[in-house]
Amino acid sequence: MDMQKPVMVAGLGNPGRRYAESRHNAGFQVVTSLGASLAVPLDKNKFDAEFGRGRIGGCDIFLVRPQSFMNRSGMPVQKLARFFDIEFSNVVVVYDDIDLPLGRIRIREKGGHGGHNGIRSLMEQLGTPEFVRVRVGVGRPEGEQDVADYVLSGFSSKEKEIWLRVVEKARDAICCILQEGVSAAMQKYHL
């Protein structure tokens, strides 16, 4: 990442009230929290995305919530990045990960999609796997529960207490990425 150039932080999720509190909307929730903490309202709309523009330290940032549903997240991110001249390597994507236990965060500079349709869409539209990923653990379903039903469901009251702390931790990890770099954030937030 080149912090001298604009950075996009894209939170993946599904639009609408029905999905607002779901596990699959982890990215939306983290970006919303980041916007509130930085006083950057996500009140602009362009290319099927809600976004806001601000600064953290000396870095010009764009906070983005694609509104095209998870499996088509790539197009709004790609269009906004091109419009605002943001290099794809300066895109940070935050999203839910069922392969991580609830409360865990993993940061990577690049990689595969791991079966995540939002990341698959981003890789297809950006034409590269080289963007930063902040994976937020939501845990796996127990027993025979369908994975799709699980990620589209909300958290139990017990899980919600943990989840609120996870959102804050992921928000802080992104701030660390933007101020200190990916390596520093990996050292501090891979707990």
Automatic annotation (TrEMBL):
The record marks N14 as: Discriminates between blocked and unblocked aminoacyl-tRNA. Keywords: Cytoplasm, Hydrolase, RNA-binding, tRNA-binding. HAMAP family: Pept_tRNA_hydro_bact. The keyword Transport does not apply. It comes from Desulfobotulus pelophilus. This is Peptidyl-tRNA hydrolase. GO terms for molecular function: peptidyl-tRNA hydrolase activity. It catalyses: an N-acyl-L-alpha-aminoacyl-tRNA + H2O = an N-acyl-L-amino acid + a tRNA + H(+). PROSITE patterns: PEPT_TRNA_HYDROL_2. Monomer. It is found in: Cytoplasm. Its main location: cytoplasm. The active site is at H24. Catalyzes the release of premature peptidyl moieties from peptidyl-tRNA molecules trapped in stalled 50S ribosomal subunits, and thus maintains levels of free tRNAs and 50S ribosomes. Its EC number is 3.1.1.29. The record marks D96 as: Stabilizes the basic form of H active site to accept a proton. Transmembrane segments: none annotated. Belongs to the PTH family. TRNA binds at Y19, F69, N71, N117.
